[in-house]
Amino acid sequence: MEKSSIVEINLRLHKLVEELTGGNASKFAKISGVNVQTFHTYLKGTVPNTEALYGIHKNFHVNINWLLTGEGSKRTVGTDEKPLGNKFLLQVAEWLDDVARRDPRKPAWFELQFESLFPEFKTWLLKQRIAEGDQHRRAV
């Protein structure tokens, strides 16, 4: 791969981190399922491996063709994978909290079922937990 192509991939990756996680590369890596240290090497100019590309696509609906070539739309959702709305996911999370108040054993089972049926729920829940952790650290 030409050096100019690698630089362009790097610039697009930086743009995604800025737009999707407010510039927080560690958060972007965690949500993508990529080792944080490895992800930082991508930001310094290493081309992401296939697992990283898949994680970025799956968790942020990034068009890998756009990331690698700059062609096509930046974000994509396939015709067979429609993302769940945040309102719906929030309702599911509130429902799980309500179930937990009644029977502390049930939410784990339901959470696993939702994660297996709706991968977007798992991603959304992870993002919520990371955001809550960030807010807690700022408050301390």
How would you summarize the topology of this molecule?
Layout (H helix, E strand, L loop, with lengths): L2 H19 L3 H8 L3 H8 L6 H11 L3 H6 L16 H17 L3 H12 L1 H21 L1
Helix pairs in contact: 2-3, 6-7, 7-8
Structural class: mainly alpha
N-to-C CA distance: 46 Å
- The total domain count is 2
Number of E strands: 0
**Strand percentage, roughly?**
under 5%
CATH superfamily label of the largest domain: lambda repressor-like DNA-binding domains
The name CATH uses for the topology of the largest domain is 434 Repressor (Amino-terminal Domain)
Structural notes for this entry:
α2 crosses α3 (36-43) and α6 (86-102) packs antiparallel against α7. Helix content is 73%, strand content 0%. It is mainly α and 140 residues long. The chain is elongated and about 55 Å long. The protein has two domains: 3-69, lambda repressor-like DNA-binding domains (434 Repressor (Amino-terminal Domain), Orthogonal Bundle); 86-139, no CATH class.
Which keywords apply here?
mainly alpha, 8 helices, 2 domains, 434 Repressor (Amino-terminal Domain), 140 residues
